[in-house]
Specification:
Elements lengths: L1 H23 L5 H30 L18 E14 L8 E6 L8 E5 L11 E8 L4 E8 L1
Antiparallel strand pairs: 1-2, 1-4, 2-3, 4-5
Length: about 150
């Protein structure tokens, strides 16, 4: 709600600048016309963002879909997985994207046989080792928090 109030305030500030241009009588000069267009554009962009935020807030407070991959507890922001590491495949992503590792555990049901982690997990999760992995969920992947070897 605070973001909406700040956005609405920031949408009104350029309109006050246009009011000043009208009062000063420079609206029909080149400087006045271009400044008015720039201020209207700024006000329109911030105002549209504020309206979108109001629409999202009235709809339910934010996006209802947050993707996450992997096994474990689906509803919480973290999880624990136990098992023997069958394979760890490392994939380098493009510039600006995190690298990912896909870790497959032995004997897991076909519905959730693997976890997707951010970064290189080849050294942290050795193949054939029994592990207990604690992780937290991020957008589309998991972040390794702790590993216990047994």
């Amino acid at each position: 709600m605070l973001l909406i109030a700040i956005s609405l305030l920031l949408a009104l500030v350029p309109l006050a600048g246009i009011g000043w241009i009208l009062v000063s009588g420079t609206l029909f000069t080149v400087d006045g016309l271009f400044m008015s267009l720039i201020l209207l554009t700024m006000s329109g962009i911030v105002g549209t963002t504020a309206l979108f935020e109001v629409w999202q807030w009235r709809k339910g407070g934010g996006p209802s879909f947050s993707p996450s991959l992997g096994a474990g507890k689906a509803s919480s922001g973290s999880g624990v997985e136990r098992g023997v590491v069958e394979s760890v495949e490392f994939y380098e992503s493009g510039v600006g994207q995190p690298n990912k590792s896909i870790v497959k555990f032995q004997g897991k049901p076909p519905a959730a046989p693997f976890l997707v982690f951010e970064g290189d997990m080849r050294n942290a999760l050795p193949v054939g080792q029994r592990v207990e992995v604690t992780f937290r969920r991020a957008a589309g992947y998991n972040v390794l928090v702790d590993v216990s070897y047994s």
